[in-house]
Design a protein that fits this description.
The complex is a heterodimer of chains A (about 375) and B (about 180).
Chain A lengths: L1 E7 H11 L2 E6 L6 H10 L6 E4 L3 H13 L3 E6 L1 H17 L3 E9 L5 E5 L6 H4 L8 E3 L4 H18 L2 E7 H5 L1 E7 L54 H16 L2 H4 L2 E4 L5 E5 L2 H12 L5 E6 L1 E3 L14 E6 L4 H9 L4 E6 L8 H11 L1
Parallel strand pairs in A: 2-3, 2-4, 4-5, 5-8, 7-8, 11-12, 11-14, 14-15
Antiparallel strand pairs in A: 1-9, 5-6, 7-13, 10-12
Chain B lengths: L2 E8 L4 H15 L3 E6 L9 E9 L13 E4 L2 H8 L7 E5 L10 E5 L1 H9 L5 H13 L4 H11 L5 H18 L2
Parallel strand pairs in B: 1-4, 4-5, 5-6
Antiparallel strand pairs in B: 1-3, 2-3
Helix pairs in contact in B: 1-5, 3-4, 3-6, 4-6, 5-6
The chains are: A alpha/beta (about 375), B alpha/beta (about 180).
């Protein structure tokens, strides 16, 4: 059974979190993500969960990491300036392999920039923003329904891989209202527990160690320092450090094609749009208005880890056009993976989304 | 058929709520698709607020309003900012007491604020009067759908007041239909 609703993207994100069993929200309200904190404050206590407004975003992500170690599915929501503050603790989450969900309703930056306008300027920050070599998972919704669905998915991926999972939405999708179908229950992939006899940070075949939830009798030492499989610091051992960081990266990167979530349309086309988030909607409008199947479209719902094999789904592609609300952040990643095809970045700043006419004109121009 | 409805007025009139109710009515009770968006900037808190609804029988791809075919204008500032350039093919419903300008397109003068204040006795429901007029003047969604959506959206205890306003709006929209 499902319930139909007409709701805002940010509210749908909340409903997705609650459906996924989120019982802890720690955050600091910031436009344009504020409705998520508002709804969480309203709904979380009624479900026996915890809503806590922290003094800032550094403390918010800290609280989320702590809550996760008690076994809770934990989440925070923010936007650019708050996201920047979270960077150090996000590295701590990566190093300690703490599952958590961070929602970023992106607005125009740098700095406080454009609080009420749309942007996708944090796409590289979520991938590279914290110091050291890391790999995380980033999901990008383009509909209110996907705000729900991908929030659920973010929790499952965070738990499965023991990483922070980012819902990298934006003001446009966060603030729009549309029809959404909310299922009575969703698939929940639980965290695996440590196998008997295994050390606290001893990885299994999938490179992910079982999670020793606090209070369940495990002896767990958790540190951001380079640690051995027992969890204790060993910060001057070069081989250990290299093996640990390579595992933290590889556990995600080696599964990128399994994690990938995308739609590929008109795969014979020579000119192909690659989009994520709101520009997906604009490209779909262009394809609808010009139904001759000459324009290809790759829509990515998961951008990190980047699924480069999806580019090969378009064997005739000569040009990839990448409309995004930044100056070419994902276009830069796509350029790394193309095999001779031209990559045209259609970066856009200012806070409004690409129009269908703009994108169609670009197709005509390159043809 | 894609319809784009643009609402503008001043902060506090319930412009945003009107758009949300219209979208909700179309999406949930007329089984169409709808996307509601709004301007969030500081000008929306006192200056000209704006909200838009796209309604279609098919799923809505591009979510923003590009070419509104229905304008609902409830302040002079809103008219100047969002309504004055309405194309000739559009239709505009304007609050005849609050909007001084008149567009080049077809328009209907709806005395929503006067009706709410003088006939119904509560100026706060002017937006609901206007919403009723929109439905009967354009036929964009059904009366039943908008009634349900209004009842879903208004505070408990104000249902009768809002239904009175909505039905008065139905009458005004019909009278004005040509």
């Amino acid at each position: 059974m499902t319930t139909l609703e007409f709701m805002q993207g940010n509210a749908a994100c909340c409903e997705g979190a609650l459906a996924a069993g989120c019982t802890f929200f720690g955050g600091y309200p910031i436009t344009p993500s504020t409705e998520i904190a508002e709804q969480m404050a309203l709904k979380m206590p009624k479900r026996g969960g915890v809503f806590i407004q922290m003094e800032d975003e550094i403390a918010s992500i800290g609280a989320v990491i702590g809550a996760s170690w008690t076994g809770a599915r934990a989440m925070t929501a923010t936007s650019g300036p708050g996201f920047s503050l979270m960077m150090e603790n996000l590295g701590y989450a990566v190093m300690t392999e703490t599952p958590c969900v961070v929602v970023n309703i992106q607005r125009g930056g740098p700095s406080t920039g454009q609080p009420t306008m749309s942007a996708q300027g944090d796409m590289l920050q979520c991938r590279f923003g914290s110091h050291g070599d890391i790999s995380t998972i980033a999901l990008v919704p383009s509909t209110v329904q996907e705000m729900f669905d991908l929030t659920v998915k973010a929790f499952n991926l965070a738990d499965r891989f023991r990483v922070p999972a980012f819902l990298m939405s934006d003001e446009t999708i966060g603030h729009m209202r549309e029809k959404i179908s909310i299922p009575d229950s969703v698939e929940i992939i639980p965290r695996k527990e440590p196998k008997p006899g295994m050390l606290i940070y001893e990885a299994e075949e999938d490179m992910v160690p079982g999670f020793p939830t606090f209070g369940k009798g495990y002896r767990a030492h958790i540190t951001g320092l380079t640690h051995n499989e027992r969890g204790y610091p060993e910060a001057t051992n070069p081989e250990l450090h290299e093996a640990l960081v390579r595992r933290l990266v590889d556990k995600v990167e080696s599964r990128r094609h399994e994690i990938a979530d995308y739609d590929a349309v008109n795969t014979d086309a020579e000119t192909v749009f690659i989009t994520y988030g709101p520009s997906t909607r604009t490209v779909r409008q262009v394809l609808h208005d010009h139904p001759d199947e000459t324009i290809g479209h790759l829509n990515l719902r998961i951008v990190w880890p980047f699924p480069e094999d999806t580019l090969k789904l378009f064997p005739n592609a000569k040009t990839f056009i990448v409309p995004e609300l930044n100056l070419g952040q994902m276009a830069r990643e796509i350029e790394r993976h193309v095999t001779g095809q031209r990559v045209i970045s259609m970066g856009r700043l200012g806070g409004t989304i690409h129009t269908p006419a703009e994108l169609y004109d670009k197709v005509q121009e390159v043809a | 058929m894609r319809h784009e409805v643009l609402f503008s007025g001043f902060g506090g009139q319930g412009i945003i709520l009107s758009a949300v109710i219209l979208g909700r009515a179309a999406a949930l009770y007329d089984h169409k698709h709808a996307v509601q968006t709004q301007v969030y900037g500081p000008e929306a808190r006192g200056g000209a607020s704006m909200s838009a609804v796209v309604i279609d029988d098919d799923p809505i791809l591009y979510p923003k309003v590009a070419h509104p075919d229905i304008y609902v204008i409830m302040s002079q500032q809103g008219f100047e900012k969002y309504g004055a350039d309405a194309p000739p093919s559009a239709i505009m419903l304007l609050d005849s007491e609050l909007v001084l300008g008149r567009p080049d397109c077809r328009y209907r003068e709806i005395a929503a604020t006067n009706e709410a204040k003088d006939t119904i006795g509560r100026v706060i429901v002017a937006n609901i009067v206007m919403l009723g007029a929109v439905v009967t003047a354009t036929g964009i969604i059904s009366r039943e759908a908008i009634e349900q959506a209004v009842l879903d959206s208004v505070p408990k205890g104000t249902e009768d007041l809002n239904m009175t306003a909505l039905r008065r709006g139905f009458e005004l929209g019909e009278e004005e239909r040509t």
